[in-house]
Amino acid sequence: MKYDIIGDIHGCFDELIQLLSKLGYKKQNDIYVHPEGRHLAFVGDATDRGPKSLATLELLFKLQEAGQLTYSPGNHCNKLYRFMKGSNVQQTHGLETTVAEFKTLSGKEQNRVRRQYIRFYESFPVYSELDDGKLILVHAGIRADMIGKPINKSIITFAIYGDITGEKHPDGRPVRRDWAKKYAGSQTIIYGHTPVKEPRFINNTVNIDTGCVFGNKLTALRYPEMETVSVPSSMPYLEEKFTHFDG
């Protein structure tokens, strides 16, 4: 199977459609298919912050129903899931934009989207092993010693939030260790979560969150070719949102 793995969308639906077109996907019966049978995969955080989170979700729902989707839920996915389940979550860090869209729907449509999203979220594992285990798809990262082990709280936290220290940056973002710099596993890990200006290839890992919602670009990694394809963002550029690594 050949994959096109797309980074964090965050409601940037127009850029997603542009990227699918650039990758060679054609719209058929409300979903996008590739003439060569390539499969779409996403590293999570499809919603929040951007202008069209619900349109993005509707496309993902249709891809899932058609059996054309692999998805690794992220921290924003988890927070939206808890909101949809009725938990009292803080509507901050972008969730408020998705909720605002959601509240414009009729009661009947809200119930449909709620049910579909809960089913969508619950259907995907915290990380996926693809290509006979040679490829790992995860939102924020995973250590080599976690792969294949029974899922526990520490694995879920690492996969969704990254290698967090418990400390906070001045703007409220959690401080994260650079787990990819120490990764020494044989499996290729594709992830997002931490916005970078260019896809970061290091130690058999690739970060493809190129900060579309922060004005940079939306990126896909083509596997097994290991080539990246990007489209520019239409959002305002926010330099302070990007992480700069020392290696």
Automatic annotation (TrEMBL):
Protein name: Bis(5'-nucleosyl)-tetraphosphatase PrpE
Cross-referenced Gene3D superfamilies: 3.60.21.10
Start and end residues of each Calcineurin-like phosphoesterase domain: 1-196
NCBIfam families: PRK13625.1
Pfam families membership: Metallophos (PF00149)
Superkingdom per UniProt: Bacteria
InterPro entries assigned to the protein according to its UniProt record, in alphabetical order: Ap4A_hydrolase, Calcineurin-like_PHP, Metallo-depent_PP-like, MPP_PrpE-like, Ser/Thr-sp_prot-phosphatase
